[in-house]
Amino acid sequence: MPDGMHFRMVDIIRKKRDGASLNREEIKYFIDGCVNGSIPNYQTSALLMAIYFQGMADRELADFTLAMAHSGVMIDLSQIQGIKVDKHSTGGVGDKTTMAVAPIVAACGVKIAKMSGRGLGHTGGTVDKLESIPGYRTVLDKESFFKQVNEIGVSVIGQSSNLAPADKKLYALRDVTGSVPSIPLIASSIMSKKLAAGADCILLDVKCGSGAFMKSETDAIALAQKMVAIGEHNGKRTMAYVTNMSTPLGQNIGNALEVREVVDVLNGRGPEDLTQECEELSATLLMMAGKGTMSECIDMVRNSIRDGRAMNKFREMVKAQGGDASVLDNLDDFTRSAVCYEVKAIRTGYISYMDTEAIGVASTMLGAGRETLDSVIDPKAGIRLCKKTGDRVNKDDILAVFYTANEDLLSPAIERYYGALSYSQQKPESSKLVYAIVDSNGVRKL
Ligand code: URA
After folding, report:
1. Across 22-150, where does the E strand assignment appear?
2. What digits encode the pLDDT tens for the residues 207-264?
3. What's the angle, vertex CA 115, arms to CA 78 and CA 142, rounded to 5?
4. Within 6 Å (CB) of ligand 1, which residues are found?
5. Distance (Å, rounded) from C-alpha 4 to C-alpha 174?
6. Is the N end or the C end of the chain the one with fewer CB atoms within 10 Å?
7. Does domain 84-328+435-445 correspond to CATH entry 3.40.1030.10?
8. Which secondary structure element, helix H or strand E, spans residue 421, and what is its range?
9. Atom 8, ligand 1: which residue's CA is nearest?
10. Which fold has domain 9-69?
11. What beta strand segments (E) does 54-195 contain?
């Protein structure tokens, strides 16, 4: 702060509450105070709620995001040769694409040094999923991380604790004060971490629908545009896919169950929606890294799956990070739970709608996610969906299989699951998997 400038947090809150834009010095004062603890949580929360209601101007959002990125280490990936790519999902249910996309892209010759997060609320996190593989280390020191990416082209680890610490603080407060689903707050949260993580190209997967933080296509596209603008403004090639999260992605929800489905995708027998999304995201990353046109890159991706290179790369990454890769060949043992319960349909009709957030919550209730900050995850808990939106169901058909270590957790989760489904007598129209692609040229609706 220049000499002579003195701020009071209450003035900053009032200014935002009344709809004005904060300047760079006020933002720096707030972010510094938030990280060093000099601003109390109640004032931070009040400002977050003011931002939730008033939004942020473009310049203000850019300053806010950069201040958050610079609140911790800015990782320098220059020790890794070549173009480095990164991808990030805004969070969904059954979204295991990172675990498939990272080895596919590496198998096609583009490096990916990826830091991922843990589950948040009803959404799962890649780090929790990978930790279901016995021995897999999600914490590597910087040298080992760089060395692994230089040697095998890929590493997926947890975020270093000093990556955008302002986001950690703000996210935890947003989570408990109802200010998560805000476009500027999500955009700055994600992009501060992406800018600090140092990749050259960033691909965002903005989820849209009942299982996403953004419920409408308009909001999801607006979020995608903000994030692309922040990335491009900071010299990163940035693109965003806006994808359907009104039904869970693939069939499996839960940590080991999702690893299992990734193995299916990498072996060329994954569910159609998940396979398509993994192929498109991987090909787009290859294209962004200059490997060819989109159709050439799709061919490269499919070949890497067909000839086993993508699966081998996943195995190589698991081994390099201390994981027991033999579980990938014994998937029944790997995902076997003490309790395995078939949830049957109590009526006949078409499934017309799935409240995907509630389904994510049901999986968490079985032990797949955290109820409190210190909950311990049951890696094998979760749900395998047998019927999804658009499917015809007869009474007593198996809707889903629930996996848990504790039988007592079944009934509340089943109740939540039944409540998440709506039925119709007519087959509902099928919905798209990708709604739009956003880049520096604008929005292309599909
Ligand atoms: N993921 C993040 O990292 N931050 C958000 O605010 C939402 C999803």
Report:
1. 84-89, 111-116
2. 999 999 999 999 999 999 999 999 999 999 999 999 999 999 999 999 999 999 999 9
3. 50
4. 90-91, 171, 180, 185-186, 189-190, 213
5. 32
6. C
7. yes
8. strand 421-424
9. 90
10. 1.20.970
11. 84-89, 111-116, 154-158
